[in-house]
Amino acid sequence: MSNNKSETKPLEKIIELRLPSRLGYERVAMDTASSLARRMGFQGDRVDALKTAVSEAVTNAIEHGNQHDAAMKVVVLLTVRDDELIVSVADQGRQLLDQNNVTRTPHIEDILDKSDKGGWGIWLIRELVDEVEFTTAPTGGNQVRMVIHLER
Predict the structure, then answer these.
(1) Is residue 20 part of a domain?
(2) CATH number at residue 69
(3) pLDDT, tens digit, 9 for 90 and up, residues 9-45
(4) Residue 144: inside a domain, yes or no?
(5) What is the structure's pLDDT at 11?
(6) What residues does 147 pair with on adjacent strands?
């Protein structure tokens, strides 16, 4: 047993939301994330960016991962640390993320071409948070892990 203080982990608080796959429930995750971020001391523009990123991630989970099946859940884990907020969004994914959409940056031609509706939410998430990772969830679906750092 070590008494070395440098080995102590930062204090974490974890909140778990289990949402039905129905549009509108992304607001529950947005409101929870923004409330936590404000309590942590995030500035208004950072809170707004976080809300948009969380909305995009949960909406993608509802629409693409769970394909609007209300019996399937979207699990949102919010981990509060001293200097960052981590938001993980996992679906029960029948349809796994297209890795091409995860890595590509859409072009202006894609915006004008109404047939290409994919990729913008993922691009937006990447622009709004400090770190993002797209993986397979432990349950076999999709998982998006987003980190936003507290700037003091």
Answers:
(1) yes
(2) 3.30.565.10
(3) 667 899 999 999 999 999 999 999 999 999 999 999 9
(4) yes
(5) 79
(6) 86, 131
